[in-house]
Amino acid sequence: MDFGLTEEQELLQETLRSFVTGECPVTKLREVYDSESCYDPVLWEGLMELGIGGLLVPEQYGGVEMEVLDLALVSEVLGEGAVPVPLLGHSMAVAAILHGGTEEQKQKWLPALASGEILGSIAYAESTDDGEIWEASEATTSFENGQLRGTKKFSPHGQFADLIVVSVSGGGLVVVEPKSSGAKVEPADSLDRARPIATLIFDGTPAEELPNAGAALARVRDIGLVTLAAAAFGGAWQVTRMTIEYVKERKQFGTPLAQFQAVKHQIANTATDIEPVRALWWYAAHALDHIADESERNCALAKAHITERSMEAARSAFELHGGIGYTWECDLQFWFKRAMFNRAFLGTPVAHRARVADLAGW
Question: Can you state the percent helix, strand and coil of the chain, rounding each to 5?
Fold first, then answer.
C-alpha cells in the first residue's frame, strides 16, 4: 500500500511552490506588512487562476472538486511562504454553503466563489466575560425574521470579503453581504498583518439562512482546523530551513555556528519534532472525506499538536538567530507571527485537547 502523495498532488504542490517563489518573495511580504490595507488582491487573483479558490467546489458549480487533503497540501505550501492570501476564510465559507446550503444557494454563490469573482470569509468568534467563543454552536448572535443582530470578532479578511458566513444562536449559519444595510465592518489589530481581521457589527442586517447548517457546522470547523494545522507544519519547516542556512553563515570566534554540537542538537531536535506530525494532518484531512467517525477527533488533535510544535520551532529559530531574530530587519518575524495566529485562531490547543477528551468520554 502506498502511503505517499499521488503524482497529481505532488504536481499541485510543485506548481504552487513555483508560484510562491516567483510572486511572493520576502520583499512582497514586507510590502504587504507596510501597506495600509495589509492585503494584495493580485496574489489572490493569481491563485484563482490556478483554481485554488474552487478546490472543494464540485465541477457542476465551476470548481475542480478535489478533496480536503488537497486543500491542506495547498495550505502547507502557503504556510511555507507565509503567503498573505485569504484561503482560510474563503475555503470555510465555500464548505459552509456547499454542505449547509440549498441547491439554489449553491448555484447562486459557489460559481462566483470558485472563480474568485467574490471573496468569502467566516465570522464565528464572539467575545464574552470569560474569553472568546469559537464554537459555532455556542454563538449568541441572533437571527430572526431574516435579520441579523450581534457582534462577531476576528473575521479573517472580513473587511475585504463580499460574502461572510456567520454563526448564530441555536447552532445555525447564515450568509450575509457585509455591504448590506445595518452592517458595520471595523478592521481590527492583528499581530500577523498579512492576515488582517475584522470586527463585524450587525443591527438588523438582512441575511440568508443556510437550512442544513446542523450537518455542516462540524465539517466547516474541521476544515478550518486542518487548514491551519497544515499551514503551521509548512511554516515550522520553513523557519527550520531558514535557521539552518543562517547558522551555516554566521560565525563565532571564526567558526560557523553550524559546527557547534549544541546548535546541531537543537536543530535536530526541532526537525524530529516536526516531521512525524506530517502524518497527523494528512490523516485528519483524509478522514474528513473517507472516515467520518474519526475526523472530528483527529482534526482537533492535529490543530492542537501541530500549531504548538510550530510555535516551538519558531522559538528555537529565534534562539539560534540570537538578538537579531527579534528585529524588524530579520525575516523570521513573519513566520513567528503567523505561527501565533495559527495557534490561536479557531481555539487554542488547550481548548481542542479538552474537546478531544470530551469526545472520548473521559
Answer: 60, 15, 25
Contact status, residue 310 vs residue 233, Cβ threshold 8 Å: yes
Arch. (CATH architecture) of 215-359: Up-down Bundle (1.20)
357: amino acid identity, one letter: A
Distance in angstroms (rounded) separating the CA atoms of residues 341 and 319: 20
Q: Pairing state of beta strands 147-156 and 142-144?
A: antiparallel
115 SS3 class: helix
Q: What is the pLDDT of residues 318-343, one digit of tens each?
A: 999 988 888 889 999 999 999 999 99
Considering the entire predicted model, what is its pTM? Answer: 0.96
**Region(s) of the chain under CATH 1.10.540.10:** 7-115
The number of beta carbons lying within 10 Å of the beta carbon of residue 176 is 23
Domain with CATH 1.20.140.10 in the chain: 215-359
Distance, in Å, from the CA atom of 215 to the CA atom of 96, rounded to the nearest integer, reads 10
Dihedral of alpha carbons 196, 244, 71, 217, sign: negative
Is the domain defined by 120-213 classed in CATH 2.40.110.10? yes
The percent of residues above 90 in pLDDT, for the chain, comes to 90
Q: Which amino acid is residue 232, in one-letter code?
A: A
Name the maximum alpha-carbon separation found in the chain. Answer: 73
Domain 7-115 in CATH 1.10.540.10: yes
Where does the chain hold its CATH 2.40.110.10 domain(s)? 120-213
Distance between CA atoms of residues 74 and 263, nearest Å: 31
CA dist., res. 124 & res. 136, Å (int)? 6
Closest CA to 200 of 178, 180, 221: 178
| pLDDT tens-digit map of 301-322 | 999 999 999 999 999 999 999 8
Please name the residues in contact with 164: beta carbons below 8 A apart, sequence gap of 6 or more. Answer: 93, 120, 121, 122, 123, 155, 158, 175, 176, 177, 178, 200
Q: Is the CA virtual torsion 140, 98, 94, 309 positive or negative?
A: positive
